[in-house]
């Protein structure tokens, strides 16, 4: 299916960029906040996966989020709140957040990525036309529109991770 192939291609390329950026990064660099009013790589990675998890599992598949079902919230030392995706967090909240160790952070990223791949491999035209509710309960969009919005968000955050990787460790890390 062309629509999901386009989305999956964009997401796969973004995941490759994120994987390259994370290569060789330790807990200290992942948790580093470059300046006030900025997010760490760890926070951005957590947030983009929370967004993807909530879109794919809850809004598009009507399943419990991986965050809750696979007990990632506990591993992160956070609440089970499926609506806590970091949206609307203040700079103070971001600065106070303590990321888990790299293995936990990357483990959740890999679990969410697998869920998204499986969903996109099986999605049908009927699934893409289905109306889904967005946060707040006031807006409905097609699943296709939701996937487009989610993909844009995930790619934007992947670029932020790549930028910070270059900022901290220099260029030369990205494969073509």
Any guess at the CATH architecture?
Up-down Bundle
CATH topology: Four Helix Bundle (Hemerythrin (Met), subunit A)
- How many separate structural domains? 1
Spatial strand sequence of the major β-sheet:
1-2
Q: Briefly, what CATH class?
A: Mainly Alpha
Radius of gyration, taken over Cα atoms and rounded to an integer in Å:
16 Å
Class computed from helices, strands and strand pairing = mainly alpha
The total strand number stands at 2
CATH homologous superfamily descriptor:
dinb family like domain
Tell the overall outline.
globular
SSE order, one letter for each helix or strand: HHHHHHHHEEH
pLDDT < 50 runs, ≥5 residues: none
Layout of strands and helices, then pairs:
Layout: H1 2-22, H2 27-31, H3 41-60, H4 66-69, H5 72-76, H6 91-96, H7 102-122, H8 125-129, E1 131-133, E2 140-142, H9 143-169
Antiparallel strand pairs: 1-2
What does it look like?
The protein is mostly helical and 176 residues long. The protein has one domain (2-169): Up-down Bundle (Four Helix Bundle (Hemerythrin (Met), subunit A)). Helix content is 65%, strand content 3%. The chain has 9 helices and 2 strands, in the order ααααααααββα. It has helices at 2-22, 27-31, 41-60, 66-69, 72-76, 91-96, 102-122, 125-129, 143-169, and strands at 131-133, 140-142. The protein has a two-stranded antiparallel sheet. Strand 1 (131-133) and strand 2 (140-142) form a beta hairpin. Helix 1 runs antiparallel to helix 7. It is globular. The mean pLDDT is 91.
State the gist of this model.
By secondary structure, this protein is mainly alpha-helical. It has helices at 2-22, 27-31, 41-60, 66-69, 72-76, 91-96, 102-122, 125-129, 143-169; strands spanning 131-133, 140-142.
